[in-house]
Amino acid sequence: MSSKQVNFYNRVKMLRVERGLSRQQLAELINVHPQTIGYIERQQFNPTIELALNLSKALGVGLDAMFSAEPFELVDEAALRPSAKTNK
């Protein structure tokens, strides 16, 4: 892990970018204003547990992973899907 601490706020941005989502797109998924996403990513807003849960669902990770102090590997979702070769 880099010297920069990865926390909830960093993970929101990291996961959003990994999934190719803009702030606008993520905001629409969870029904908040895009500025809210920016505030969260810049650590200027502490989300409620409901908002944190909605973020974790939209980003496809468990709430525990969002708040974990442990680093985690980002996984390419395409790598998890069975290929046509394995379905034969």
Automatic annotation (TrEMBL):
Keywords: DNA-binding. Residues 12-66 form the HTH cro/C1-type domain. GO terms for molecular function: DNA binding. This is HTH cro/C1-type domain-containing protein.
